[in-house]
Amino acid sequence: MPHYPDAMPGSKTLFERARKVMPGGNTRTTVFVDPFPIYAARGEGCRVWDVDGNAYYDCINNFTSMIHGYAHPDVTAAVVEQLPFGTAFGAPTLSEVELAELLVERLPSVDQVRFTNSGTEGVMMAIKAARAFTGRPKIVKIEGAYHGSYDFAEVSLDSSPANWGDLPRSTPYAKGTPRGVLDDVIAVPFNDTEALRAVFAAEGDSIAAVLIDPMPNRAGLIPARRDYLHAMAEIAHAAGALVIFDEVISFRLGWSGAQGLWGIEPDLTALGKIIGGGFPVGAVGGRADVMAVFDPTAGKPALPHGGTFTANPVTMRAGLASMRALTKDSFAHLDCLGASLREGVTASFEKHGLAGQCVGLGSLFKIHFTSHPVTDYRSIYPGQAERKKFDVFHKGLLGRGVLSASYGLFALSTPMTEEDAGAILQAIDETLGDVAAQS
Ligand SMILES: Cc1ncc(COP(=O)(O)O)c(C=O)c1O
């Protein structure tokens, strides 16, 4: 068993090197682990090996993006085929048309697509498109929901009891967030139709869009209620505002993403992660009349948009191969694995007499070390005792050869078998036993 951190001397050495040339040895806050992260050497299928040769089941999959795990043969072949022909041009290529066609076919709400290099940019362009289309400045978002690093999307991401006050409210995430940003974002509680109605009654004339992830990971991975989403569309549209779904993660929930499962068609959808086949990617798609803000054919568009590496053919080819390999059977397989793990983890909490629960849908699940109902960001906000449990759990799992997010998120991949799921569950069960013993 590769006990963390003692069995990872190679990672420790690399982190020490990294600290000299990167702040905190880190170039991505989300992958930092105290005292040091494990450094990945290679991945294959659902497994990753670190630089010390320790093997892990990867249940984070680059924060949900590697839905086929590593080195899927179709994706590798597509990339290898493209490389000798060039990796990025100052010209469009066939590959972007093909990936756009696939997305338009899978998402009934999406008539047209624009690619970006990250989910952050996909969300940013969706917000800017909503502003350009409506001529209004403000967006409404859910407290605690993560949508990437655009200033406006980051507001109220990590509100705490010290500053959260009564909603609606806007709290800065990064130090130095301009006042104007906070003024133009209204954070509301999740799944609360009346709160949304009240915000629109007060400020509807200046709201461009409501931005929502239908199952927001950082806000608890709790699915939105269908009636809430339908009411959201009604309220927003009545005020002349748009609804933006952030499906950067939730597109992995089904053939047509969360919007397909919930039976709702947002005006705009932000995408990312799985659509790039493991390469940097994002996209915004939506109704043709809204997407027309990007159209340069009649002169300067309402919303100009560029990006040196946008829609580069390596990403597009990898994304296309990966999405084609993601069949309806793949989703059925992932749903099955997810359901059995959620059930097993719930049983494990009970077995160990540990306060906790397991939430999520499809290939995603998340644990909360609390037994009270989890309904929104505030209800899942961990106190000191829960933070300690997450730390013991995360590191205990590392030591048992399972990678997860430090805050209890798990994302499964198509190469995982029932046997793999059984091994993952056993590691989770043993680690929950450790947490119970230390509580
Ligand atoms: C829901 C959601 N939206 C947007 C983003 C930003 O995507 P990226 O990291 O590709 O910029 C993320 C990233 O985790 C996300 O989870």
UniProtKB/TrEMBL annotation:
Pfam entry (one): Aminotran_3
Highest taxon, organism lineage: Bacteria
Family of this protein: Belongs to the class-III pyridoxal-phosphate-dependent aminotransferase family.
Key words of the record: Aminotransferase, Pyridoxal phosphate, Transferase
CDD domains reported for this sequence: OAT_like
Coiled-coil annotated residue ranges, if any: none
GO molecular function: transaminase activity
Protein name: Aspartate aminotransferase family protein
UniProt keyword annotation of Transferase present: yes
